[in-house]
Input
Amino acid sequence: MRQIISKKVIDMQPSGIRAFFDLVLGMKDVISLGVGEPDFVTPWNVREAGIYSLEQGFTSYTSNKGLYKLRLGISRYLKHRFGLEYCPDEEILVTVGVSEGVDLALRSIIDPGDKILIPVPSYVSYGPVSELAGGVAVYIDTQKNNFKLTPKVLESYIDKKTKALILNYPSNPTGATYTKKELKDINSVLLKHKIFCITDEVYGDLTYDFEHTPFATLSGAKENTLYLDGFSKGYAMTGWRVGFACGPKDVIAAMTKIHQYTIMCVPITSQMAASEALAGGRKSVEEMKREYKRRRELMVGGLNKIGLTCHVPQGAFYVFPSLKKTGLKSMEFAQGLLKKEKVAVVPGTAFGPYDDYVRMSYASGYENLKEALVRIERYLKTL
Output
């Protein structure tokens, strides 16, 4: 029988995050620090808005661009909070989470052979989606600079084939993020070389030590940036699958063209709920953020105390401790910890060539995290 499956897909590795998530399913008494999903439920007023929209009979398609009420809400929110002005008619697209936004963006801008720069460790989808779109993923190791991209390193990777940079901050998996000064320096390099910037800022609301700065607010950056954000992390709305893309109207138009032939539109129920999140969800976001920060202190302090060196993440809800002192590689460590102590973590190799690290999510209850630290310490003593 002739080969049916695309070679590109055959060569693609499955998600390392999902592999461990699937292992945990059905296991009893497992503490999962694996999947990056808030343990909070969506705030009640947001859930109620979704329910009420169904009761009122809102069950139709929306515009391909998204419900106008939501696009207008996004526009007003960004202007009020950050001073960012985007036209809801031409510069905003509602997407199925930020993941679809990344996919649409790359398919919209990539011609065969274009290079996409990706600082690593990175979220698992950026490289594969770049390659599915016909591009070449170019990975930039950030390990030597506390998992942050520097202007000097960035410039060393740029050549005539470079099309764009994907900048995720706060970062999944490290929690590293950038000050306004650091972002300005990166922006200067991008503008100098005319490199487009795609920013995944879905964890922006969960920035702990200073204010989050959207990349598009920097001088000269707005017309050179596609700003991606969503409701999954800050508002605990992962299952609602609502994200949004803001950027130059020609880029948004191209993304919308692909979106209308594939997804068509985000479910109206989810969009109605997201509208309520923008209108009345900030208090809940701040409450969840305070709790995540408390958990961060517990995890960073606890891991360093038991011998797993861990830098302090400035955002998101992940820690990325080093395994070097254990002598184990990431898959061996993760499998042993799951088998012996029923704690699930994600091997560092899911995010790049980081076999000396694992990712742990602290989007879990405080008491669960305390117990997880006890179990991890007990496991380390058996090595």
Q: What stands out?
A: The chain has a mean pLDDT of 95. The first strand starts at residue 31 and ends at 32.
